[in-house]
Amino acid sequence: MEKTDEGLNGGSGGNLPEDVLEYLTTCNGDDSDDDNHSHHSRHSSRRLAGNDAANKKKQKKDKDKDEKEKELKHKKEKCGTGVVLQQRLPAPPSLGRQRDVTAASEAAAGAYSVRPERRSSSASFASTGDDDVSSSGSVTTKEESEETPTDSRGELPAVVAELVDENESEAARQEIDRLKRELEELRQGQQQQSAEIVTAEPIPDVQPMAASTEFSTTSSHGLDRTSFPLLGFPEAADKTRTPGNKTRIDTHQKLALDSLGHLYGRETQVALLSGAFHSFLEPTPTKDVVTVRGESGTGKSVLSKKVEEFLQQNDNDNRGLCVTGKFDDVPRDAAEPYSAIAKACEMLCQTLLIRMRDDANDYGDLPHRMRESLNNDDIDLLLALMPSLQTIVGGGGDGFSNGSINFLEVKSRFQHAFKQFIRFVCSVAPIVLILEDLQWVDQGSLDILECLLKNDDQGAQSSILLLMNYRDDEVDADHRFAKFLGILKEQQAADSQLQMTDIRLEGLSEEDVEDLLKRLLEGREDEGNMKLLAECVHSKTAGNPFYLKQFLASLETDGLLMFNSESDSWVFDVSHIQKATQATDNVLTLLTKKLRKLSPLIQAVLPRLACLGPRFATTTAHLVLDHVTQECDEHSNCNESIIDVLLTCQQEGLIVDCGGNTTWEWSHDKVKETAFLLVENKDKLDHIKYGLGQALLERVPKQELESNPQASFVIVNLLNSRAHLLAKDNPKRVEFAKLNLNAGKSSMRSSASHGAAQYLKHGIALLPAEQGRWAPTYLDLSLALYATAAEAQYCIGCHEQVKELCDEVLAQPSLPLLKKRRLYNVQIHSLASQAKMAEATDLVLKVLSKIGYKPPKLGRGLLSMSGIVSMSMTVDKTIGKLERLKPMEDEEKKWGIYLLDRLASYSYQCDASLFPPAITKALDWTVKHGRAETTSPLLATIALILAGSFSDFAGAKKYADLAIKYMTPSVKAQTYFMCYQFVYHYQTPNHVCIRRLNEALETGIKSGNLESAFYAGYCALEAQFHTGRNLQLLLEDCKAYAHRTDSYGQEMIGWSLSPVWQLAENLSRIESNGAILTGSTMDEEEFKQRTEPYAHFGVLLNRIKTTAAFWFDDHERVVQLMEECGYHKFSIEKATPATNGIGVVYFHCALSCLSLVHQDKKKHRPHKQQAKKILKKLKEWVNKGNPNVQHYESLLEAELASCSSRQPLIVASKHYDCAIMLAGRLGLANDYGLAQERFGDHFLRHGDQDGARHHYSLALESYEKWGATSRLNLLQARTELARG
Q: Per the record, where are the segments of Basic and acidic residues compositional bias (predicted)?
C-alpha cells in the first residue's frame, strides 16, 4: 500500500485513502450512457464481460499510478514543514461523509461482508497461482485479474461489479447503487471544496463470503476479528455458529455497547447534576461548583458532559458557553502549566470568535468591550494561556519581566488578569467550565481556580458553573486537591454566591448489571441464565461500567458470547466463561490482551502517542510514525500511512476523532495507561520518550516552539527522561539546558512557579560541572538559569533553596556587580518575606556600599535632621529641579535608587535612624542623575516626612502632587497609599482619601504591588469605621478584604484589620465588655503574642483599644492608655508619623478627659489641661486647612464651655450646634450621634430634661443608622433617666 501523505500537514488536498482516490480518478465516463449501464448492472444475471475493457482499464490504472506516485513523491518532500505539536481545539468538522458508506454496505450485507479498511491478504479468495496486489490495495488472483471484466464506465472496482448476480435481492442492489452515488458525491465535494477533506475511515470494499467455513475468531478476509471495533462502531459482518457447524452471516446482531453508555443506572446522580445546573441558571449570579468523584471507569466524564445536554435544552437564547479541559497523568510539577484550563480557555476564545462571525449584532462590539475590561498588561499575560485571545483583541509583548521586581507580583498580576477575563465573559454569557482528572492537577491551576472562586467586594456579575471530576481513590487527605476542596468548603460558609454539590459514582449493582444485560441481549434468554450471567459479569467487573464494557466485548471477541441466528438468541456458557476468564485481574489485563493482538507497527506507535498526552494532532502522529519507521528496523519497510494507523485505532475504540481527522484523544485514560504497558520496563520507556523527544525537536520548526509553549513543554518533558544520563562533554546537554530555561520562563510568565522550579532544576543539572559553568561560554546561560530558579523558589516559599542558589552565584568573584542584580534582589525579598528585616537591611547596606553609598555610623540623627530641614526650607527650589529632570539612564544608579527605597521601607520597621538618611540620599541621587521608576514613591515619602515631622502640610502637598504627576502604573498603588494615607488627609475630606485608597487596592492587585495594595485597603476600612460607615456593611467589607488577603498570600497585612474588625462586631451587637477586643475575629492576648516582633502592630492595637474604650464609655481606661502610650505628649506622631487615624485618637483622649472632669472637676483638673493641650494641636491643623477635625475642635470647645462655670450656657450650645452641623455636613453618622448625645448630657447636667430627651432621641436615630447596637443600649439608660 502506498502512503497517502496529502493533507497531513494542513494542505488543501483531500486525505482520502489511496484506493478511493484512485477510483475517483477513473470516474470520468460518458454520462450519456449512465442509464443504460445502471439498468444493465441491476438486471444482469452474470458477471460483466469484456477482456478488452479490462485491459484498457488496467493500462489506465498503470498510467494514473505512475502520475500519482510522482505527485506523492513531490508532496512528501514538503512533509514536516509547518507542523504543529498540539492543536488545542477541534478543527471544523470534515466535509467528507463519515460512516455513511459503511452503514449502507451493512444494510446490504445479506450476502456480502463489508471490510472496514483495506489490507493486503493472501487469504481473501480461494485461488491457484500467484496473487496480484493491485495499486488500490485490493487483492485479486491472477486469474481474476486477467479474466474478470470491469464496468466500462469505471464507476465501481471490478471486485464490486462481480458481486452483482442474479441471486441478489433488489434491496441489496439498491444499496450498491447508493454506494456509487456516495462515492460520486465524495469526488465532486473534493473538486469543489478548498477545505481539507479527511474521511473518518476508509471506504469499504464488498467481497463474497465462502459458503461454509468453521467458526473462528479470524474472518474470511484473513483479518483478526479484534481489528474490528468492539464498542459500538460499525463492524464487518459477523459469523455465528449454527447447528451442524454451518456458518451464517449476521450483521445486525452485535452487542450495542455504546448505545447503553456509562449513564445506565445513574438516575440519582443525573438528578443531582440537574439540580446544580438549574441553580446555575437562576437569574441571581452564582458560583456553582460540582465535584464528580469515583474510581476510574465509573463514568465520571460521561456524567460531567451531561451538562452540555442540559445547556442545549435549557438555554433558549443559545448564549451559554460550555468548555472543557483535561489534566494529564504526568509528574505534576513537570506538566504544562494550567494544561486543562489553557485548553478550555482556547476553546472559549474560539467559540467567541465564531459568535463574532455569526452574530454581529450581539457580539460585533465584543473586542471593544473586552478592551475596556482588560488593559494591555492583562492581555500580554493571558496570551501565554490562550493565544487565540490575540485574534479577538490584538495585543502582544511579554508580560514577564526580568528586572528588579517582587516576583510574587507576577502571580498576582496573572491571577487578576484571568479573573477579569472570566468576569467579563460571564457578563456576556454564563459559562460552564468542565475540568477532568483533578487527581493530576498542578498547583498553579488550583491557585488560579481558588482566586476565581474567592469572594471579593465586586461579586459575580454573572453565573459560572465549575464541574470537576476526579478519582477519589487517588486523592487522600494530604493531596493538594483535597486541601483545595477544604478551602472551598470553608469559603462556602461565608460566601452566599458559592454553592457546592458533591456526586459520588460507584460500580453498578448486580441488579443493574442484570437489567443492562437484558436490554443488551434483548431479553432472549431465560431469567435463570441471565441472572447467572449477571452474577458472573458483576463478580468479574465489580459493576465498573468501563470494565464491564471491555469484559463483554472480550467475551464476544473470544467467542464466549455469540448470537445464534437460527434460534434468534445469544449463546453463552457461564461455567465456561468463569474458567476462561479466571486469570483476568483487572481492566488493564483485558486492554493489554486487546492491544497485543494489533499489528507490531501499531504496538510500536501507541506508547509514543501516549507520550504526547491526552490529545494529539494528526501531524504530530505523522512525525511519530516516521520516527518509528526510522528507529525500528522491523518497521522500516512499512507502507501504512498514519491515517491507516489512526483509523485502525479508532475502529478498535482506542482513540476518538475530535474533529475532521486532524485531532485525536484517547477514548479513556486506561487505554493510554495500557499503551505504556506495551513497553517492557521503565528504562525502555524512558529511552522511547527520549528518542521521541529528539525526533520531535529535529522536525518541529524553531518558530513553532517559540510561538507554541505547549509544544516546548511536551518536548522538554520527553527529553528530561534521560537527558541527565548524557556524557558530561556531550554538547546536547547545553542545548537541552536552554530548552529547560525557556520552559521555566514560560511557566513563570503565567506564575506556574512549581513547574518552573522543576524545569530550571533540570536545566542547572545539565550545565557543565563545577567552575566550568561560569566560563564565558556558558556564563549568560548559567546566570539566567540560577536567577530564574531562585525567583521560582522564592515564589513557592522555598527560602533555603533561594539562599543556596544565590550564594553560589554571589560567591563568583569575577562576575560584575550588575550581573548579580537579580540574585541580590531575590535574596533581599526572601529575607523580608520571612520578616527578617534586620538581615534584609544589612544585605541592602552591603550592596549599596558596593555602589557608593555608606550611611554615617555616628550622628545619624543630627545629619538626618539637617537633611530633612533642608528639604523643608527649599521645597520650591527642589521641586523646580525635579520638574526639569530627565529619565535616569545609569543602570547602577537606577538599582541604587531601588535599594534605597527598600532600605527606607525595612529600616522604618527595625532601625528608624536609617530611614531619613536613605531618603535624603535617594533624593540627592535623583537630582543628580534623573528620574527613576521609584522616584514617585520617594517623593511621596518626603511628603510624609514634611507632614509628620514638620507639620508642613503645604510643602508636603507639593511633593505629593509631583509624586502623582510622575508615577507609573507599576508604582501607582504605592504612591496613592503614601499620599492619601499620610499627606492629603490634612487638607482633603476623608471620603476622597477613602476612594483613592480603594483605588490603590485594586490597582496594586492588578499591577502586583500587593504590599501597598493591601495596606491601602486596610487603611480605607479603618477610615470608613472612623467616618461612620454602617457597621453591617463594613463587616461585609472586612470579610471580603480578609478573603482577598488570604487569596493573595498577604495574611500578615490582614492581621492589621483584626482589631478594627473585632471592634465593629462588638459595637454591632450588645456586648457587656466590648472594650476588650476578643471575639469571633480575634483574641487580644493571642494577637499580642503573634505580633510581638513587629512594633507597628503594637502601636496599632493601642490606638484601636483606645477607640474601643471610648465608644463603650470606659473613659478611665482611655485616659490610662493615653498616659501609658504618651498620646498627650504626641509621641504617637513619632511612632507612626502623619497617619490618618492620629486625629481620632487625640479627639477621643481629650473627650474622655473632659468626661472625667464633668464627674469631679477638682480631682481631674490635670486632665482638663491635657484636653486643652490636645485641642490646641487640633486648632493648628484646622488653621492649616484640615477639614476632617473641625467638628472635633467644636465639640471639645463645647465640652470645655459646658464644664466651665464662668461661661454662659449659650456659648456651649453654639459650639454643640456647630459640631453637629459640621459632622452632619460630612455625613459622619457616628460623630453626629456623639455630638447629639453630648449635647443631651449638657442639658441633663443643667436640669433641662426636655432638651436632653430631644437630643438623645436624635442621637439614637444616628446610632441606629450607624448600626451600633451596643451604643444604642448604653444610651437607653440615660434616656430613661431624662424621662424620669
A: 61-74
